[in-house]
Amino acid sequence: MKTIKKNIKYACSAQYFGLDKFTVSLLFSTPVLLFLLILNLTFGFNKQSLSLILIILMINGVLFINKKNKINFLWNLKFSKFIKNNKLGDFQTIDGKQIFKNSATIYYFLDSDSYLHIQIYTKGNHYTKKAQNLDAELMSLVKKELTNKLIFAEYTEYIFYLSNNKRYSMSEELLHLNSNRDELSFNHSVNWNLYKEPHLLVVGGTGSGKTFFLQELILKAYKKK
Known about the structure:
One of its GO terms (molecular function) is DNA binding. The chain has 225 residues and is α+β, with helices and mostly antiparallel strands. It is built from 7 helices and 9 strands.
């Protein structure tokens, strides 16, 4: 996931690989620019060709500054294949090739807290319900457990936590960081005030550390009397 930069939104569908206007312009203008440069180097520079080169560069510069969706070629290929494999679109087979008439659009981004957000837009097509039940398929794709799923009117959002899960450290030094007698420190960022929120629910899978956590909690409460 290192190739996905934080707070940058990418787009992909089965019909295109997240190509924004800048990329399309660059794909078409690059051969033209090369052709013009070769002509100028061969026959000499003139004002008309130089003006055309400058105009093309200026257009690409404006599109680059204003572009919204970035390109992540590797993940766009994966999501494009994912859309096709899970039939999130309308397609027909012509001469043995699958041609998509339209498909779902996947937007994905990594936030500042290392959560990967995958948003699937279906525009109310017949595969909308399927897009709302892709938990196992997406977990297999990103190789992470699903943290949360949100179903909205326009899209379904799947959220994955990419960092390795670490147990809370309730070390002895945390007792001294918080002088408030009514609070217990779980770690350097989480405190529990026993009087403001007197109820605690501890849940987790087998081997996740519930017993160890409760033992540490009781010891900390005892040391704070």
